[in-house]
Amino acid sequence: MRKISANQIITATGDCLNFGIVTIDDSGKILNIEDTGGQKPTARNIEFYEGVIVPGFVNAHCHLELSHTKGLIPPNTGLTEFIRQINLTRNLPADKPAAIQAAHELMVYNGIVAIGDISNSSETFLFKKQQSEISYHNFIELFKLSDFSEKQIIEYAENLRHTLQEFGLSGSLTPHAPYSVTPKLFYEIRNSNPTDSIISIHNQETAAENELFTSQTGTLKTYLESRGFDYTVFEVSGKSALKSILNFINPDNNILLIHNTFTNEEDIKFAENYSKNIYWTFCPNANLYIENRLPEIPLFLKNNVKICLGTDGYSSNTTLSVLEELKTIQQNFPEIPFRKLIEFATITGAKALKFDKTLGSLEIGKSPGLNLILDFDFELNTISKKSNILKLV
Ligand SMILES: [Zn+2]
User: C-alpha dihedral over 175, 179, 185, 191, to 10 degrees?
Assistant: First the structure.
């Protein structure tokens, strides 16, 4: 048993306890949370840390499978060129297992306890089966950028899901993006997942993605057509990418919309009206890396929606750290309160991935992991550029 205290404890359920004490058992399960009324504890059996204790982080969007592409794709090229580069680097000869292991270990070190991980193959499955420090939800991601029929794509994906199940791992079939999935494939994915499933889709990552749906023009369309995608299967909707495809997705699923860099208020209202289970997932450092632009996060906050965070993969990020994503948000949108940032990084992601029974907040009976934020700016009551993580549990 350990009794742990710090200057502040943020529970992610609304409480901020000055000099609170968290008691955990040997497995990391929380036995008690004590509000000392702001009194610094003095008992000898209490571990006291200078800093702020928060729950373990949830990384709602990652591509562990692409860990070998670190540093290979130049930044700020825009999404169309980025997709072309992904195709060039995905199958380069590399020690992929070593890169996957190193990326996973870095995320453990960075206080991440759960990940929504995108898989296009089974390359990471065996690795994940062999470790348990991080809870993974596996999104088997599908797109129609090949000569394979929708039926063949689903068969391939069902085989992957079968392998996941044999390994005792959780997973669901998921569409890649509005521009890379045909209506028929959307339909097949919807039919293959149970109603309580979790879906993730890259959304409105570049202006050309909306352009493709509003006017059937743009660089993205030109490139993807050169790879064989037939856009005549889509109606020219005249509507944004999100509005054009959301009704292909089961509204009863948890729906993680990833990036949302070019999402406007109308899109937000449309999606929230469509489903009560929309999780707006931001990967700010990846957005800066690819498009050099950030989503308008305060607009989402104003609309009182569910927000979580991802690191994306090493193709579009220099590190895999939820704290670094928080720093980017804090520096660009300093008006967002620190407690909100921590909710993005913990409980909302845990709910999105359905890990919130055990993870995401400091509550008795949960085993969420404890992160200590060092070099916290107590004057401004938020993280600073220098802030760091020490994983306590
Ligand atoms: Zn992604």
Answer: 50
Whole-number Å distance, alpha carbon 38 to ligand 1 midpoint, is: 42
Please state the pTM of the whole predicted model: 0.96
Distance of CA 311 to the CA centre of its chain: 6
Q: Strand, helix or coil at 341?
A: helix
Selection from 288, 122, 283 nearest residue 200 by Cα: 283
Q: Which of 192, 71, 210, 62 is nearest to 137 (CA)?
A: 62
String of b and e for 38-61 (b: at least 16 CB within 10 Å)? eeebeeeebeebebbbbbbbbbbb
Fill in the DSSP letter of residue 74: P
How far away, in angstroms, is 70 Cα from ligand 1 center?
A: 14
The DSSP secondary structure of 135-169, one letter per residue, reads: EEEEEEEE---SSS-HHHHHHHHHHHHHHHHHTT-
If you search the block for the tokens 């065996």, which residue do you land on? 126
CA of 75 to the centre of ligand 1 (A): 15
| 119 CA distance to ligand 1 middle (Å) | 10
In tens digits, the chain (393 residues) has pLDDT values of 999 999 999 999 988 999 999 999 999 999 999 999 999 999 999 999 999 999 999 999 999 999 999 999 999 988 888 888 888 888 888 899 999 999 999 999 999 999 999 999 999 998 888 877 999 999 999 998 778 899 999 999 999 999 999 999 999 999 999 999 999 999 999 999 999 999 999 999 999 999 989 888 888 888 888 888 888 877 777 899 999 999 999 999 999 999 999 999 999 999 999 999 999 999 999 999 999 999 999 999 999 999 999 999 999 999 999 999 999 999 999 999 999 999 999 999 999 999 999 999 999 999 999 999 999 999 999 999 999 999 999
CA of 252 to the centre of ligand 1 (A): 22
Cβ-Cβ contacts under 8 Å for 93 (sequence gap 6 or more): none
- The backbone torsions φ and ψ at residue 71, rounded to the nearest 5 degrees and listed phi first, read 75, 0
How far, in Å, is the centroid of ligand 1 from the Cα of 84?
Answer: 14
Class of 57-352 in CATH:
alpha beta
- Classify the phi-psi angles of 60: left when phi > 0, otherwise alpha if psi is within -120 to 50, otherwise beta: alpha
